[in-house]
Amino acid sequence: MVHVYNDILSIVVVVLIIYISHFYYKYFTRKNPLPGPIPLPLFGNLFLFRHDIGELPGLLQKKYGDIFETYIGSRKFVWLCREDLIQKMTTTSTRSNFHNLTTPDNEGLKEVGLLNTALVYNLNYKTWEFYRRFYARSILKSSFNIKAADCIQEAFREMEDYWEQLGEGTILEFPRWIKRFFTDTTFLMAASKPTYSLASYYNSLFTDKKVHIPANSLKESDTFIRAIDAFVTSLLYFLLLPKYLRELPGLRGYTNNLKKRVEWLKNNVRGIIKERREEIEKTPEDHELAHDLLTMFITINTSRDITEKIADSLHDRPMTDEEICGNFMELLSGGIDTSSNSICYIIYYLSHYPKVKEKFIEEIDRVVGKDISHKITNEDIGKLEYCEAVINECSRIFSILPSVGKRNAKPDEIGGMTFPADTQFFTYFQGIHKHKSLWTDPEEFNPERFMGKNGAENKKHLYTFGIGLRKCPGRNLAMLELKLTLALLYRKYDIELVDMNSPIKYHTAIVRTCDELKVRIKKRNI
Ligand code: HEM
């Protein structure tokens, strides 16, 4: 018996040695070798990802230069950290050679049901163009900005009421509040429906006066937030991690949990769509329908269409429930984490740069006025130039999405090297945003670089909202949300960090997520 075991063990060892030798033979004789950490068989450089994935490429850039490679499992990823290396990706035509990172047969995305469902992982340009057209004629329109500004101010008033109840000077865990705030505003804009997420967070604190929330909503709103988080994580997790790693004993539970939460979100959104369809059917033809994104999705190219002439000969059909569901989920996930985390980092930087903060508040007082009952208009927001420069500078120095993935359809040349079709690239925006060839004193927080005559030129090198064809369709709305929220906060309040010595605490899962930012909020003496 012992002999049999020894024989099996010898075979296993021989197979392993052959496998590892073959792996390294292939690795060291690969075409177009780039510098980068040496991968392990089966795992690649996965263990390096114990570092934050926003920071890791920066560390590797210092060691290996502006173009290097890493491996996840056996998949190779080429990192591009200098602006000239991503130039070919700036083209906005669907005939561009550079597309989203996914492939038409990505098994992970198929498994979680996120392939070709909406915009992000859609490789079918006929439907992708239809949805992009929808964004262009809805969210990017100024008429939608009016609705957005109303929703933001409504949710802000609610948040202030809770702060008032908690008492001035109470320490607030700001990332929790602002995420709830953007969840409520985004949902109000998208579906004119309350999610009670601010209310449920307030009720979860030790407060005397609880807010009345309809039964079930409290639990639903927390599950909802967790489901959106799972959705965002899944976008990267299922795209990149091969099945054999997702199914490892330590990861299987996590994988299943993500799938369960994404499924919960889908079912919930399907329910919301069904409810709204019924409401629309019951509304007489001569009555106005709710002016929100959900109604736009449902009525597009129907007799009740409330969108602005989206139809053309190529896009003249209504959307199916599954299309609406996919787009609605992306809309929610695209807008909440990005905006709420941006606000946290802006508060952090403003607190550490008092002169910038002074100028920033001076502009808000000048443009919006000190009358806090004044409803901030879109015209006011348009005039907040320095505020926009602060947002831009913050996203340069601490990029909220440090990198995005791209893939070439045909062989292409980058940096003097020819890459075969289907090479997987990561454009490392954070590296570009701090590259000495582009920026003077890149480590210095200086919003002035986005003001005046140099400002417009510098903005061309800022990739906050991505690049080329897939550039963020929510960018105008995002800018409006950030400027308005900052104006509402700073026109009325002094925001102090509780610990000025603490570095920013965050982790990156696509978006750099602020884990902790304790603040004290007091009314300003105005
Ligand atoms: C501060 C806020 C935001 C930032 C920093 C941001 C950033 C980005 C970036 C970097 C991309 C990837 C672009 C690329 O692949 O090159 C993207 C795509 C996208 N964003 Fe945003 N975004 C923000 C807000 C929003 C909002 C408010 C929405 C929705 C209303 C939204 C919806 C989307 C969608 C649907 C895509 C996928 C586009 C496609 O693949 O065609 N984002 N965003």
Automatic annotation (TrEMBL):
<dbReference type="InterPro" id="IPR002401">
    <property type="entry name" value="Cyt_P450_E_grp-I"/>
</dbReference>
<protein>
    <submittedName>
        <fullName>1105_t:CDS:1</fullName>
    </submittedName>
</protein>
<dbReference type="GO" id="GO:0020037">
    <property type="term" value="F:heme binding"/>
</dbReference>
<keyword id="KW-0408">Iron</keyword>
<keyword id="KW-0472">Membrane</keyword>
<feature type="transmembrane region" description="Helical">
    <location>
        <begin position="7"/>
        <end position="25"/>
    </location>
</feature>
<keyword id="KW-0812">Transmembrane</keyword>
<keyword id="KW-0560">Oxidoreductase</keyword>
<dbReference type="GO" id="GO:0004497">
    <property type="term" value="F:monooxygenase activity"/>
</dbReference>
<dbReference type="InterPro" id="IPR017972">
    <property type="entry name" value="Cyt_P450_CS"/>
</dbReference>
<keyword id="KW-0479">Metal-binding</keyword>
<keyword id="KW-0503">Monooxygenase</keyword>
<dbReference type="GO" id="GO:0005506">
    <property type="term" value="F:iron ion binding"/>
</dbReference>
<keyword id="KW-0349">Heme</keyword>
<dbReference type="InterPro" id="IPR036396">
    <property type="entry name" value="Cyt_P450_sf"/>
</dbReference>
<comment type="similarity">
    <text>Belongs to the cytochrome P450 family.</text>
</comment>
<feature type="binding site" description="axial binding residue">
    <location>
        <position position="472"/>
    </location>
    <ligand>
        <name>heme</name>
    </ligand>
</feature>
<dbReference type="Pfam" id="PF00067">
    <property type="entry name" value="p450"/>
</dbReference>
<dbReference type="GO" id="GO:0016705">
    <property type="term" value="F:oxidoreductase activity, acting on paired donors, with incorporation or reduction of molecular oxygen"/>
</dbReference>
<dbReference type="InterPro" id="IPR001128">
    <property type="entry name" value="Cyt_P450"/>
</dbReference>
<keyword id="KW-1133">Transmembrane helix</keyword>
